[in-house]
Design a protein that fits this description.
globular; alpha+beta; 3-stranded antiparallel sheet; Jelly Rolls; 5 helices; about 25% helix; 434 Repressor (Amino-terminal Domain); 2 domains; 9 strands; 6-stranded antiparallel sheet
């Protein structure tokens, strides 16, 4: 899928979800902390938001992230994604060149969002802070990461796993000269 088709598909899915929730463009933009003009461009397929913005918009619309990234007609009761089939999302941009890859897609009505997150080595930008409803589980697959939660830093090595309340401010960066790959399970709040 090329970038233009992806932006059009994501924009269309966000517009459907927003309208199904009964939200105006202005209300959805305000709740997702983006401008009305930017959200309009996203919905028209003229801008591709970062995974962080897509996640906020999905939360505002009360739908799983996969509803935005996977068309309904491709959903099934099971999801099997081989390593070579993972879809990269928001490869570069303002969020420190993080690489998100969907680890599960196509399952109807998922209760969790599952992806791999690769943190680049030697990040020079301030990492984005994240807060969202629900819980999150992070398993370090490779490398080393510095994870900040509620202002406290934790150094995580390969194999380390943590689960936390995602409504508390958090972020992660690679620690050292190698990228860190994380396996992330996001369990949205059932009452957005």
């Amino acid at each position: 899928m090329d970038a233009t088709h992806s932006a059009v598909s994501v924009g269309s899915a966000l517009r459907r979800a927003r309208k199904a929730r009964g939200l105006t463009l202005e209300a959805a933009a305000r709740q997702a902390e983006v401008t009305k003009g930017y959200l309009s461009k996203v919905e028209q397929g003229q801008a591709m938001p970062s995974i962080r913005v897509i996640t906020r918009l999905a939360d505002v619309c009360g739908v799983p992230l996969s509803d935005i990234l996977m068309p309904d007609d491709q959903r099934k009761p099971i999801s099997l994604v081989r390593a070579h089939e993972r879809i990269p999302v928001a490869k570069t941009g303002s969020e420190m060149d993080y690489v998100f890859e969907l680890a599960s897609r196509g399952k109807a009505n998922p209760h969790a969002e599952i992806y791999f997150l690769t943190l680049p080595a030697d990040a020079r930008k301030e990492p984005p802070r994240s807060t969202h409803p629900g819980e999150e589980v992070i398993l370090v697959v490779s490398g080393r990461a510095r994870f900040r939660y509620a202002g406290v830093d934790f150094i995580l090595d390969a194999g380390d796993c943590l689960q936390f309340d995602a409504s508390i401010e958090h972020h992660a960066v690679a620690e050292g000269r190698e990228p860190a790959q994380l396996f992330v399970v996001r369990i949205p709040d059932s009452n957005p």
